[in-house]
Write a structure and sequence with these properties.
245 residues, alpha/beta, eight-stranded mixed beta sheet
């Protein structure tokens, strides 16, 4: 198995059973990569794997709850045994609160839940997978962020980001800040880490109210996952290029 897998790029996409995550997995699978479909829900995970395989992708399921350390450790062991390394990690899993959501009346449990998944979950998975990533010749980390996490855009007159967000937008700003620190720490390695802004995509996260398709939203993450060795690191991108922090 290790000899066979060594010929392919190995990627893990968290939250890959639906929406943007599924389309990221599909796009990378179409490139001939071996795609780990990370997801909590067993039925949705295996359905996604079956659809990807039917389309010709080399997909495999990875039971993964990013909020659970034991689940993350088991995912590391699964990839270790299957491939012996990880080339690309796409931290796509995320949750949203209500919208709009004023900070003066927000339920603190909502804030905790979003931070646990959108920030701590990314840190938990990244740190656990990093030893496998460092075995890769071309390791890439892509974090799913958002335009709403840009403090510059949030404070630019005339820019409409959908109203007040007391929890979701701040978690993406937090994720942006954490990514910068990862880029600084990993600057002496060949790891490239960047954040992706998919745009306003119609997904379950927003009640399918978005204006872009999941396939369109996946494009920037796919581009960042396939950066050349001299590509950028520690930045935030959408389809048009660099997004200001």
């Amino acid at each position: 198995m290790l000899i066979f897998m060594s010929e392919k790029t190995i990627v893990l996409v968290t939250g890959a059973n639906k929406g943007i995550g599924y389309e990221i997995a599909a796009g990378l699978g179409a490139r001939g990569w071996s795609v780990g479909v990370g997801a909590r829900d067993e039925r949705r995970r295996e359905d996604a794997v079956a659809r990807l395989r039917a389309a010709g992708a080399d997909a495999f399921g990875v039971p993964l709850d990013v909020t659970d350390a034991g689940s993350v450790a088991a995912a590391v062991q699964l990839i270790e045994e299957r491939a012996g390394r990880l080339d690309v990690l796409v931290n796509n899993a995320g949750v949203a609160g209500g919208w709009p959501e004023e900070p003066t009346t927000i339920d603190l449990e909502t804030v905790r839940r979003l931070v646990e998944t959108n920030v701590l979950g990314v840190i938990r998975v990244t740190n656990a997978m990093l030893p496998l990533l460092l075995r890769s010749a071309h390791p890439r980390i892509v974090n799913q962020s958002s335009h709403v996490g840009s403090l510059t855009l949030q404070t630019t007159p005339g820019v409409d980001l959908g109203g007040i967000s007391g929890a979701y937008a701040p978690t993406k700003a937090y994720l942006n800040a954490v990514t910068i620190q990862y880029a600084k720490e990993l600057s002496g390695t060949n790891v490239l880490i960047n954040n992706a802004c998919p745009g306003y995509v119609a997904t379950e996260l927003n009640g399918f109210s978005g204006t872009r398709t999941p396939e369109q939203g996946a494009a920037i993450a796919i581009r960042l996952a396939t950066l050349p060795d001299d590509g950028p690191t520690g930045q935030l991108f959408d389809d048009s290029g660099v997004v200001p922090w």
